[in-house]
Task: inverse folding
């Protein structure tokens, strides 16, 4: 990847979502203070859906200066999506604007895909201390039928039903998502579906789930896409069908062993079509939000290298990934 044209920090715009899982005034102050060690800082606190998008859009729309304008998203995966929507609102931003994530939501899988399990303080110092070394261009996707941007990834079937199942559970944070997956898996009935990648049908029949991305982990702890790379210009696709009982899925995903099962499919491609062939609506989510959708089909197109982000430039080696499946990495096994 070519080095970016800019290397100096112009400023940090910290966008904090006060209703995200662990965002409090103390955290906002700590993030601002950490960023201020490296450059000047402005803080925006959102008060309604769409505020983060508008703040990021304004930051991206300002004329380029001589350095990098960093937009720091403080919140969960939903906040990251809003910020990315704003940065992409008027087309892909140039290298003068970059996204940096501070995890403060429920799943925080976007942060994990960028920085693994590093403390956010270390990530901020590393990113802002070496912006040239940490600037990469992230692949995104767009859902044609919804005209929706996808940052972390998307899922259909069981991995979408988790969000519906978790709504009424008493647990909080990641424990709620874990309980939601176990609860949904216990009663889930696979659907008849079809998955097409770049014009070729790669799966047809009984479907437990389809996941597309994006980040390797979902809900922090589930290694759904073990081989996914942030910036290879491709979407990773995982399909679980015949050969997997839904109740086995939580343990398989925690260990990253699901692709070893009979009937599992892993592909990469630029366009993915996910269909439900029995005529019923497809249960679909992206970036941790269940989508209200009555259609039977979604089409996702990769947007290669469109979003500048500050993230770990030293992904784990294949050997390290195999030995420690919960370590985020950017290299394909």
Result:
């Amino acid at each position: 990847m070519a080095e970016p044209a800019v290397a100096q920090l112009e400023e940090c715009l910290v966008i904090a979502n006060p209703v995200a899982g662990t965002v409090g005034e103390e955290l906002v102050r700590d993030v601002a203070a950490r960023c201020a060690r490296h450059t000047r800082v402005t803080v925006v606190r959102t008060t309604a859906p769409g505020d983060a998008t508008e703040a990021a859009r304004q930051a991206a729309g300002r004329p380029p200066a001589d350095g990098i304008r960093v937009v720091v998203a403080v919140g969960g995966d939903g906040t990251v999506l809003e910020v990315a929507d704003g940065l992409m609102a008027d087309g892909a931003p140039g290298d003068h604007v970059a996204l940096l994530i501070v995890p403060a939501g429920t799943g925080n899988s976007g942060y994990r895909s960028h920085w693994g399990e590093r403390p956010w303080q270390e990530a901020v110092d590393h990113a802002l201390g070496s912006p040239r070394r940490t600037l990469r261009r992230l692949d995104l996707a767009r859902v044609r039928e919804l005209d929706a941007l996808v940052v972390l990834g998307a899922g259909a079937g069981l991995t979408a039903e988790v969000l519906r199942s978790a709504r009424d559970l008493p647990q909080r944070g990641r424990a709620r998502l874990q309980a939601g997956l176990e609860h949904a898996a216990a009663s889930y009935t696979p659907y008849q579906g079809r998955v097409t990648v770049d014009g070729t049908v790669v799966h047809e029949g009984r479907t437990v789930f389809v996941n597309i991305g994006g980040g390797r982990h979902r809900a922090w702890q589930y290694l759904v896409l073990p081989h996914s790379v942030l910036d290879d210009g491709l979407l990773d696709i995982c399909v679980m069908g015949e050969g997997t009982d839904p109740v086995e899925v939580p343990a398989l995903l925690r260990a990253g062993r699901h692709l070893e099962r009979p009937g599992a499919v892993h592909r990469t491609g630029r366009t993915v079509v996910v269909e439900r062939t029995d005529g019923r609506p497809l249960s679909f989510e992206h970036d941790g939000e269940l989508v209200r959708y009555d259609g039977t089909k979604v089409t996702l197109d990769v947007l290669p290298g469109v979003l500048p982000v500050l993230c770990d430039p030293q992904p784990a080696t294949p050997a390290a990934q195999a030995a420690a499946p919960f370590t985020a990495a950017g290299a394909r096994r």
Notes: The first strand starts at residue 8 and ends at 16. The chain is about 30% helix and 30% strand. The chain has two domains: 8-139+306-323, 148-304. Residues 109 and 220 are 5 Å apart (CA to CA).
